[in-house]
Every structure is written in structure tokens, then in C-alpha cells.
Design brief:
The structure holds two protein chains of two kinds.
Chain A: H1 3-27, H2 38-45, H3 52-56, H4 63-75, H5 83-97
Helix pairs in contact in A: 2-5, 4-5
Chain B: E1 2-4, E2 16-17, H1 23-26, H2 45-50, E3 53-54, E4 62-66, E5 71-73, E6 91-92, E7 97-99, E8 107-110, E9 118-120, H3 122-128, E10 131-139, E11 162-171, H4 172-179, E12 187-192, E13 204-208, H5 209-212, E14 218-223, E15 226-227, E16 237-239, E17 252-258, H6 265-268, E18 272-274, E19 291-293, E20 300-305, E21 311-312, E22 318-325, E23 331-337, E24 345-346, E25 348-349, E26 359-365, E27 371-381, E28 404-410
Parallel strand pairs in B: 8-17, 21-28
Antiparallel strand pairs in B: 1-7, 2-3, 3-4, 4-5, 5-6, 8-9, 10-11, 11-14, 12-13, 12-17, 14-15, 14-16, 18-19, 20-22, 22-26, 23-24, 23-27, 25-26, 27-28
Classes of the chains: A mainly alpha, B mainly beta.
């Protein structure tokens, strides 16, 4: 990748941080169920995409499937999460957006 | 470069409607609870609940699947038109949308597969190469993923992650031949100006040489006679007619001609189907023992009007309007059944707009009996293929081309 390209990429990431802030106004209509684990979900799962990725993928994933999804976000996409974060997020997603959970509001 | 993110501009005047009933979309009547027809109600409950109608700047209200990155689906009612209006055309991104001005746009061609590197501006490219255009369906690989039973993870699209347009620009072949191809040229790798948010894999896709050199494969600047909307890949995108939209790289910036199979995540790991499940991929350098890249679109059809669930007037003759398309062999015929698939009759094909375009069809019905009525439609392609009766389930949720069963109510 050319130097020029690398610079452009860097600029892109800086700009993106800014654009996330503006986008939040529209994403703020997304409501996830309040419970233990939600703060970790909000912190870890809204960096790269809005939280409707979780909503639309519910409620049909069992705990193992959510675990697979979260691990993919960490290992493939690069989500910076500790093992504790992962455990809290998986438990939360399984309880509120897992297979058999009540349909999203 | 400015980035348009998700649905940005918090002060936009945006209209939102809850899609609890599809009547807001079609203007038709909708009877909830009708079973047996593949309607948007077959989506995961969470996708139905979060699938609001929402207008991105410059777009009409579309079905929002995700705000950020923006993934927005075209309501089926827009498919009444032969070509999908640009402002109703679906939107699909894996990361933030880059906003590249035409004046700043550059296209670089390099790699071990070319004899000499090239860099073009819009002006130099258009001046040097002959213009070309093609009418073609652009369909997301995951179109109808949401209808998979059992459901699979991903963007939960209904029927509208597709559209039909006339794409114009220059031939990819002419540009590649200008750079000169070496004997070892194997794949053409397309990269857009979009970049992953943090550390994830960049969205980069490759084409086999034969597809890249197909005279219908374009670097397009316009759709339907207008510059590409930013949401649909301005200033330029690849157009790979007949192949799913994952190859139609938006905001195209770089072309690299490789002498080895390209190994990026979105080629090697994602956008894959089990080996042999859907026939040969036509992309041997990317086939593995286990799987193949998704490539050509499977023959398919869709009933557009009246919408599923509509109430039809007894004794009144109406025309059912639909569309049919495939990966480029063209549509040979479309049959309709009103008795659950026991007997089939030919629908009337409308004008042929090219083998990569969808083909509109019409079928007259005059429902005589009050109560439930089910219409089935099945397309046949010129290559002999037809739609499947049952879902060919696969992990990523691709190639849903099950014969549609549309329920109406006659009163």
C-alpha cells in the first residue's frame, strides 16, 4: 500500500471517530433491555456498527451462537474486549436476545 | 475526504414509520397472520421490530436494517418500475461510506499481473476509453437471508436488497489491456476508498480474469443516466453483471492484478458457499476443498403487485405484475400456479431489456371464489435452471430462490 494511501487511511479513522458522534443521534432510537451486561454491550458492540446488528439478529441465536458471534468480533474484526467483557456480553445477549427470548420491543 | 456515516446529520428532517404493517409500504391492505407466504413477516422478530422506514439524505424512505454502517432495503413496491429509481435503490456497506469528490478521484492499476502501472483521473479515463453501458440487476449476496429457516446470522434482508439499473462508464477490459496483462495475471483485485473502523479486514474483492475481461464488466460512473449516488458507490464502482453485488466494489480506488489467489477475509472466509452445493463457481483460483466463493446469481422471481396479503375483489380481473432474473443467461419463461403447484400456466413476459436485466411479467387472474387464494410463480432461465421448491440451506444465507407462495384474500 502506498504511503499516500496509508495517510488517507489514517485520516479516515480520525474522521470516523467524529462521524460516530454525529451518527449517535439517529442510533439513539435503538433501545436495548436494561440489565447487567448492557454497559459492556454498549461499550464493546457499538464501536464499528450500530446496535441494531444485535436486534435484527434476534431472537434466534442460542448461547453458543452468540459466543461464536462475539468471538468473531474479537478475533476477526478486532473488537478490544477482555475475557470478562466477553462473558458479560454473551450472558446478556443470551438472556435478552437469545433463542426463545421475548421478541425485541 | 468527508465521511458519511450511518444515518448522520442528527438535524436531518427524517421521517420514520414503524413497519408493523406493510400497508404503509404498498398502499394496499394487509391482513396480519396470514400463514404460508414468504412475506417480510418471516424475518426474525427483532429484524421486523427494528426495520423502520427511514430516509437517508437524498434517498426516499427505505427499510432500515442498520443505521451504521448504512444498510437499507428497497421496499418491493418500487420494483413495479423496470429500472429502480436511484433514490430508492438499496444501500449496503460494511463500514463507513467514503465521500470522494469526482475531481479528487484517482484510479490506480498495478500489481504483478500488469506490464505497466497506470493512474487515471475521471477526465483521463473517460477521454481515453470508449463509453459502454449495461442493464443489470444488482443483488446483494444476502438478499432474502432473513427468510432463512432456521435463521442464520448476518444482515437480515427481506426481498429488497436488489435493484435493476442501466450502468454506464468504461469497460474494465479496456483499462486492463491499456496497462497490459502479463502471462501470469490471475485475478483482478478491486479496493474501494472505504476502510474498516478499527483493525478489522478491509473490504476488498477479486474477480477471475475471464470475468474482469468480459466486455459487460464495467467501471461505472452513472446509473440510470445520473451520477452514482454516494450511497451507491460514487464516483465509480465496478459492475460485474450476473454476479452478486459483493464484487461490485463501490468508491473504487485501486485495481491490483495478481498472479496469486487473493487472500483477504471477505474473499477467503466470507461470501462462501459449500463446495458443489450450487454448481461450479466459475472462479477456480478461489475454490477450496470445502467451499467456493458465491458468484453468479441464481434464477429467481418476485411477485410485485398486488402485494402479499392484499384483498382482491371477487369476480374482478386484475393483472399480477412480477419480475424474473438470473445470472445472465436470460429468462426463458415464467409459470404461475393457482392450485398449489399442481398445474402451471405461462405468464406473459414483458420487453427484454437485456440478459442481465430483470424481466417483467404479467399474469391475468379473475378470482371467482371468496376466501384464501395462493399464487405461486416459478422462473425458468435460458440455461435450463429453475427455482427450487425447498430452501437449499447454507451457513451464510445465500441464494434463496425458493418458489414464492403469495397469499391473497378474495372478498
Amino acid at each position: 500500500m502506498s504511503h499516500k494511501h496509508a495517510v488517507r487511511r489514517a485520516v479516515t479513522s480520525v474522521m470516523l471517530a467524529a462521524s460516530i458522534a454525529t451518527a449517535a443521534a439517529d442510533e439513539s432510537s435503538i433501545r436495548l433491555t436494561e440489565d447487567a451486561g448492557l454497559p459492556q454491550v454498549q461499550a464493546s458492540c457499538s464501536m464499528c456498527h450500530s446496535l441494531d446488528y444485535i436486534l435484527m439478529n434476534s431472537p434466534f441465536q442460542d448461547k453458543a451462537a452468540w459466543e461464536k458471534t462475539v468471538n468473531k468480533m474479537v478475533k476477526v474484526m478486532g473488537a478490544p474486549m477482555t475475557a470478562d467483557d466477553v462473558a458479560a456480553v454473551v450472558a446478556y445477549l443470551d438472556t435478552h436476545y437469545g433463542k426463545g427470548a421475548p421478541a425485541a420491543p | 475526504m468527508r465521511l458519511i456515516c450511518g444515518a448522520n446529520g442528527g438535524n436531518m428532517d427524517r421521517r420514520k414509520f414503524i413497519l408493523g404493517s406493510t400497508s404503509a409500504l404498498t398502499g394496499g391492505l394487509f391482513l396480519p397472520g396470514i400463514v404460508g407466504s414468504a412475506t417480510a413477516q418471516d424475518l426474525p422478530a427483532g429484524a421486523v421490530a427494528s426495520g423502520i422506514l427511514d430516509a437517508l439524505p437524498g434517498k426516499r424512505p427505505l427499510i432500515k436494517r442498520s443505521f451504521r454502517p448504512p444498510n437499507y432495503e428497497t421496499p418491493v413496491s418500487y420494483f413495479r418500475e423496470a429500472f429502480t429509481p436511484n433514490d430508492a435503490f438499496y444501500v449496503r456497506w460494511h463500514s463507513a461510506v467514503p465521500d470522494v469528490a469526482l475531481a479528487d478521484w484517482r484510479l490506480r492499476i498495478s500489481g504483478p499481473g500488469v506490464k505497466s502501472e497506470r493512474e487515471f483521473t475521471h477526465d483521463t479515463l473517460r477521454r481515453k476509453f470508449k463509453s459502454a453501458e449495461v442493464a443489470a440487476v444488482n443483488q446483494c449476496s444476502g438478499n432474502r437471508r432473513g427468510l432463512f429457516n432456521p435463521h442464520v446470522a448476518g444482515v437480515q434482508w427481506g426481498f429488497g436488497a436488489m435493484g435493476n439499473a442501466v450502468w454506464s462508464g468504461v469497460r474494465l477490459k479496456d483499462v486492463l489491456e491499456d496497462a497490459g496483462l502479463t502471462a501470469s495475471a490471475l485475478e483482478v483485485v478491486g479496493n474501494g476508498a472505504d476502510a474498516p473502523t478499527l483493525t478489522g479486514p478491509d473490504f476488498v474483492k477479486s474477480l477471475p480474469m475471464w470475468k474482469a475481461l468480459d466486455p459487460d464488466t464495467l467501471i461505472a460512473f452513472e446509473m440510470n443516466g445520473e451520477p452514482l449516488p454516494t450511497w451507491n458507490g460514487a464516483p465509480a464502482r465496478l459492475v460485474a453483471p450476473g454476479w452478486t453485488a459483493t464484487y461490485w466494489i463501490k468508491a473504487l480506488a485501486d485495481l491490483t492484478v495478481t498472479d496469486k489467489p487473493f487472500e483477504g477475509f471477505w474473499m477467503k472466509t466470507a461470501y462462501r458457499v459449500p463446495k458443489g452445493m450450487f454448481g461450479a463457481s466459475g472462479f477456480e483460483s478461489q475454490d477450496t476443498e470445502q467451499n467456493s466463493p458465491i458468484t453468479a446469481i441464481k434464477v429467481n422471481s418476485l411477485v410485485v403487485d398486488p402485494a402479499p396479503g392484499a384483498v382482491l375483489e371477487r369476480g374482478k380481473r386484475i393483472e399480477v405484475l412480477g419480475i424474473a432474473w438470473d445470472g445472465g443467461s436470460g429468462i426463458r419463461g415464467i409459470e404461475v400456479s393457482l392450485d398449489g403447484g399442481k398445474t402451471w400456466r405461462d405468464a406473459k413476459l414483458q420487453r427484454d431489456l437485456g440478459r442481465y436485466s430483470w424481466r417483467q411479467w404479467r399474469y391475468a387472474i379473475k378470482p371467482e371464489q371468496a376466501g384464501a387464494m395462493t399464487l405461486m410463480a416459478r422462473a425458468h432461465a435460458r440455461d435450463g435452471s429453475t427455482q427450487t421448491d425447498t430452501l437449499v440451506h447454507n451457513p451464510a444465507g445465500y441464494h434463496h430462490n425458493v418458489v414464492q407462495k403469495v397469499d391473497y384474500h378474495v372478498a
